[in-house]
Design a protein that fits this description.
It is built from two helices and twelve strands, in the order E-E-E-E-E-E-E-E-E-H-H-E-E-E. Helix 1 packs antiparallel against helix 2 (about 125-140). Strand 7 (about 80-85) and strand 8 (about 90) form a beta hairpin. The chain folds into two domains: about 1-55, N-terminal domain of TfIIb (Single Sheet); about 55-174, Sandwich (Jelly Rolls), CATH 2.60.120. Helix content is about 20%, strand content about 40%. The protein is globular, with a radius of gyration of 18 Å. The longest helix has 18 residues, at about 105-120. By secondary structure, the protein is an alpha+beta fold. It has a five-stranded antiparallel β-sheet with strand order 8-7-10-5-12, with no helix packed on it. Strands 1-2-3-4 form a four-stranded antiparallel β-sheet, with no helix packed on it.
Length: about 170
Amino acid sequence: MEKIEKQKCPLCGDTSLTLLEQEEDIPFFGKTYLFSMNCSSCGYAKSDVEAEEHKDPCSITFTIEKESDMKVRVVKSSEASVKIPQMRMSVTPGPASEGYVSNIEGVLNRFQKILEDQRDLGEEDEDKKAAKNLLKKLWKVKLGDMPLKIIIDDPSGNSAIISDKAVVTKLRAK
């Protein structure tokens, strides 16, 4: 792991930014580089994942069918979008988009956090109720009581869902 400290933060300008680069060999995916930067002054953080091998733009579809699917490994680059069509939810890439290595449960937890914020901080009662209902559905999915499809679209090809059940297709140009 390479660590470079006392760099200038792009947000606050302090020299309190730490850069990290770590090489990982992810089974069935290959050599991968994990990059992150964190500022101890203002809390700015950014991370990304990049495969050593060049990959083609892809769409990866995975259907969660049982509780053990929560452990399936997920690699998401900062350029990828994650969609849950049945719940009409998606996270699209932007300046604050993060790359990460996690599992299906970790991906669902990210959506759960968004829904909890909407439930707790939303201004409209209708929005709060919708968030509560979606949280109940997520709970059922995590217990394996309800199937749910997750789609990762990645123009960089640096994302993966590492399972025999994952369906990878070529991403169509827009």
